[in-house]
Design goal:
Blueprint (H helix, E strand, L loop, with lengths): L1 H12 L4 H7 L11 H11 L5 E5 L4 H7 L2 H8 L4 E5 L3 H4 L4 H8 L1
Parallel strand pairs: 1-2
Helix pairs in contact: 3-5
Length: 106
Amino acid sequence: CGDEGESFVAGLRRFVSEQDRNDLRAVSLVRSGTTPAYEIVAYAKQANIDLIVLGTHGRAAMAHLLMGSVAESVIRTAPCPVLTVRDRPVAESMSVPAAEMNAAAA
């Protein structure tokens, strides 16, 4: 991965404190290879990972069908539980304003 990979790992480490790395055994690393999903699952198997946490864009159905989903592929093939986290709240990703959603829920 070279300098670019090292720079990326340094950026990842800013999001996880030293205490979290110790307490949770969280690891920040960069791998290169065939596909992102394959590399994530291969590392999880190799390192006997307990939980994979992935961000997801929550793309629309058509975009999902055309591009596929790394998260979906990891969920289907991972040797452990997978927690997915959306990049923004559901209300922001929908065309209905949050105020209207809150009114409908009341």
